[in-house]
Write a structure and sequence with these properties.
The protein is mainly alpha-helical and 141 residues long. Helices cover 72% and strands 0% of the residues.
Length: 141
């Protein structure tokens, strides 16, 4: 039997490569090797005192980070990651919406969770910086 052309595979809904197959099945995309290597070296610091308030020194560090040029870059990367989740959800929605109902719902739920996590993190940062301002006004006044 003849091998199907890329066009025939497309018309039959057959993924053209493993990346498209993974995307269609809703599996997480592999990150480029260099990114995976970099992430593998990172270890999450233990936070024994997760619930304690930030110290003044920690708030000062947060203020410095917020004012650095890297902060907008970080925000842009977070927005880009969110956009990737949106594009994935759209692709799933366009492929076969009736057959992929659960996967589509899950993809859009991840988009919303990601957006909410980003917004909450930014709100936490702003709240801590307001606390620092209040502390500094109390010391100076």
């Amino acid at each position: 039997m003849n091998e199907l052309s890329a066009h025939e595979k497309f018309l039959r809904g057959i993924p053209l490569n493993p990346e498209l197959a993974a995307l269609r099945e809703g599996r997480q995309q592999e990150l480029p090797g260099a990114v995976q290597d970099g992430l593998a070296g990172l270890q999450r610091a233990p936070f024994e005192e997760l619930e304690r308030a930030l110290t003044t020194q920690e708030r000062l560090h947060l203020k410095e980070i917020r004012q650095e040029q890297g902060w907008p870059v970080l925000q842009r990367l977070l927005e880009r990651a969110c956009k990737i989740h949106v594009e994935r959800a759209i692709l799933l929605s366009e492929a076969d919406p009736l057959a992929n109902g659960n996967a589509i719902g899950q993809a859009w739920a991840y988009v919303e969770m990601f957006k909410r996590a980003m917004a909450e993190m930014n709100l936490l940062v702003e709240a801590e910086l307001r606390e620092l301002e209040l502390e500094q006004k109390g010391e100076g006044g």
